[in-house]
Amino acid sequence: MTKKQKFGMSTVLAGMLLTGLVFRPVQAKTQKYTNTDFAMNTVVSETLYTKGKDLNPSIGKLLKKTEDEILSWTEEDSQIAQVNHAGGETVEVSAELADYLKKTQQLAEDSQGAFDPTLGRVIRLWDIGGENAGIPQTGELESLLEETGYEKLELDGNKVTLKDGATLDLGAAGKGIGCDLVMDFLGQNKDVSGMILNLGGSSVMAYGEKPDQSDWRVAIRDPREPEGDYLGAVTLKGGEFLSTSGDYERYFMEDGKRYHHILDPETGYPVWNGLTSVTVVCGSGLFADGLSTACFVLGKEKALPLLEKYGADAAFVDEDHKVYLTEGMKERFELMKNTYETDILK
């Protein structure tokens, strides 16, 4: 090889190395995007960490679309409304709704009816949180109770039949379903490293991790000061969901008694068992949401086998300012008010 050829080869190699340096792609930095929206009849708070674009607007649209097209009982064209208006005739629904109904029916059976997706008419009769809230007439309430019961829901693949005048209302699991949808959506976006999603303060989803790897922490309200101090905080891992049901969310007072929106499916009346709130953590948004309601109805002792079956942790708060924690919740709960004390459920 001549000197001229050697010089030419060196020039080419140097050019290749220089090209590699000049055109090497710059690693995108993780950005933080926050947003507040309104969907599923509640305020939605979003904090997203991603190397790509802001997905919060897309998440809001996803939640609203699911509510309007599938879950809403007030939107005439939604699938739930179509099932309710079928007069007992069999209706074929989407695979998505069929899956939700299968899971809610499973939870209803496992909780022996403490969670009941057919209570919608009874809930609307009370109208707690609405303009016409009040104690129903006994006869009217008893008549509507005859049309409730999860056993009246029949599923055959994608085919749904409601018997004996029953209607569906997935409100007790709807926000959890929304959290599940967002979790799946984020899993399809490789640029996303983490997100915390909060629907109305009662349903929360944690995805991935923060850039600094610090814990996801969710504040829990004091049931007797819902607009004031927080009772405590719960640590979540990526892929976990939290749901809280409490007698302070929607209620009215009459003759010194609190009439709240968590109804006992057997009596049709609000549950009065000494509990003021129940917080549940598990690996499913739908089940976390439904379990918090079911466990409130059952009470802390009867709820333990159900929580164990679903691999869930829970905190039960009562009127005596005691917080009862399952073993798993003990590791993730931090008490923030000295007017409460904790105990471990066994």
Supply the key terms:
nine-stranded mixed sheet; alpha+beta; disordered N terminus; 346 residues; T-fold; single chain; three-stranded antiparallel sheet
Per CATH, the superfamily is ApbE-like domains
Report the total helices. 10
Largest sheet: 9 strands, mixed
The 3D shape can be described as: globular
What would your notes on this structure say?
With 346 residues, the protein is of the alpha+beta class. The protein has a single domain (31-344), classed as ApbE-like domains (T-fold, Roll), CATH 3.10.520.10. It is built from ten helices and 17 strands. The strands form four sheets. Strands 1-2-6-7-10-13-14-15-17 form a nine-stranded mixed β-sheet. The radius of gyration is 25 Å and the shape is globular. The termini are far apart.
Question: What's the layout of helices and strands?
Answer:
Layout (H helix, E strand, L loop, with lengths): L2 H21 L7 E9 L2 E9 L5 H16 L7 H6 L6 E2 L2 H16 L9 H7 L11 H8 L7 E4 L2 E4 L8 H17 L4 E8 L3 E6 L7 E7 L2 E12 L3 E7 L4 E4 L2 E4 L14 E8 L2 H14 L1 H10 L3 E6 L3 E4 L1 H4 L2 E3 L5 E4 L2
Parallel strand pairs: 15-17
Antiparallel strand pairs: 1-2, 2-6, 3-5, 4-5, 6-7, 7-10, 8-9, 9-16, 10-13, 11-12, 13-14, 14-15
